[in-house]
């Protein structure tokens, strides 16, 4: 598997490394955020942020022609002490973690009726996850969810997406001082579904946020996690796993904006692709602001191509405004099965199909262990097995 790496001293062909203060390179965070759809022109596919996305498959979510006439069933399971309320746009918590940065997110914001706010009280240490299950029942729906986690609380949040239809949403995370949050998002939509969402995370002083994004289903899934730091000492761990099959488009675009000193971020996304017209896109942007001295960051994307006809676009970027950091780097790799790995296993009597299965399971094993929720891990492993059966058949 060929791998390209870059460090702050230079630039590689797969991604950009720029010291913004010296080169004049405009940061990808410079596009003005807005709640107003009119502030974002309808994309045509020539724009940098849209050049990989097949716009016609958004079925009107990007240009305002998808009317909010669909339905989605939402079930919330919350441990004792957690409150779940519905609020309007005027609630001060709505928009606090981040404002929409593209037309899809602005469309979702202007179209939702009520926002759901899930509040975890300060110092609560929850032994059971907070679970949201969203099941699309057809048509276009728009949503807004805010997870508010109090200071020094510890919680696991699991959001599960199934069913069909079109879904555009914004999800916000307000992570209080010293809090520890693990967020698991599973996209297991029906084959015809479209799902686009901006995840905005604001991490408090000495707090930690871990995200595990798992994408299997859907005709088109486009997720846009964005992380910023409200104080020093924050940590962000962003993990992702996607299995992109025949005709699917899975796109994950991350931005981590280091705005405070002595914060750490680590990104690791892995994908497997199979079938004609399977297309995966991963874009990882890390911005280190002038005031973010002592930053330590690294981002990694690896892809395993199982069959001919699949395509991967992987674009890591670093934009650095200060040299007073601990470290910053990125790596990207895309390749097929290693013949040596298969030969090693088959030489020990393991059939070819089983050897392929073991290689892929090993490829994903590290990320599966990051989930930390046994039933989700078991379901994920079963789904990987089912996808591998399809690729081997």
TrEMBL record:
One Gene Ontology term from the biological process aspect of the record: iron-sulfur cluster assembly
Pfam families in the cross-refs: SUFBD_core
InterPro entries according to UniProt: Fe-S_cluster_assembly_SufBD, SUF_FeS_clus_asmbl_SufBD_core, SUF_FeS_clus_asmbl_SufBD_sf, SUF_FeS_clus_asmbl_SufD
Naturally occurring in which organism (per UniProt): Streptomyces hoynatensis
Domain SUF system FeS cluster assembly SufBD core: from-to ranges: 136-363
Protein name as annotated: Fe-S cluster assembly protein SufD
Family, as annotated: Belongs to the iron-sulfur cluster assembly SufBD family.
């Amino acid at each position: 598997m060929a791998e390209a790496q870059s460090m702050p001293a230079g630039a590689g062909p797969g991604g950009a490394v720029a010291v913004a203060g010296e080169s004049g390179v405009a940061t990808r965070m410079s596009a003005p955020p807005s709640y107003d759809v009119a502030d974002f022109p309808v994309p045509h596919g020539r724009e940098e942020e849209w050049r990989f996305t097949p716009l016609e498959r958004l079925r009107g979510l990007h240009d305002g022609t998808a009317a909010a006439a669909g339905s989605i069933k939402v079930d919330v399971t919350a441990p004792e002490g957690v409150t779940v309320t519905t609020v309007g746009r005027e609630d001060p918590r709505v928009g606090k973690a981040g404002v929409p940065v593209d037309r899809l997110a602005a469309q979702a914001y202007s179209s939702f009726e009520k926002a759901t706010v899930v509040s975890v009280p300060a110092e609560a240490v929850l032994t059971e996850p907070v679970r949201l299950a969203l099941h699309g029942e057809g048509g276009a729906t728009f949503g807004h969810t805010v997870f508010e986690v109090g200071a020094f609380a510890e919680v696991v949040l699991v959001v599960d997406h199934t069913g069909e239809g079109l879904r555009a949403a914004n999800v916000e995370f307000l992570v209080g001082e010293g809090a520890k949050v693990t967020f698991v998002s599973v996209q297991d939509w029906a084959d015809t579904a479209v799902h686009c969402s901006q995840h905005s995370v604001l991490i408090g002083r000495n707090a930690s946020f871990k995200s595990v994004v798992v994408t299997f289903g859907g005709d088109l899934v486009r997720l846009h996690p964005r992380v910023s730091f409200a104080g020093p000492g924050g940590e962000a761990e962003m993990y992702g796993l996607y299995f992109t099959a025949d005709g699917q488009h899975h796109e994950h675009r991350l931005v981590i904006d280091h705005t405070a000193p002595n914060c750490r971020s680590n990104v690791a996304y892995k994908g497997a692709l199979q079938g004609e017209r399977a297309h995966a896109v991963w874009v990882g942007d890390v911005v280190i602001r002038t005031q973010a001295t002592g930053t330590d960051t690294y981002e990694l994307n690896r892809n395993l191509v199982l069959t001919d006809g699949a395509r991967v676009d992987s674009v890591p970027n670093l934009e650095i405004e200060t040299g007073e950091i601990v470290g910053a780097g990125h790596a990207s790799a895309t390749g097929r099965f290693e013949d040596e790995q298969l030969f090693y296993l088959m030489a020990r009597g393991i059939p070819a199909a089983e050897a392929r299965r073991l290689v892929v399971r090993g490829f994903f094993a590290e990320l599966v262990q990051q989930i930390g929720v046994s039933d989700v891990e078991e379901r994920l492993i079963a789904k990987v097995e089912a996808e591998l059966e399809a690729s081997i058949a």
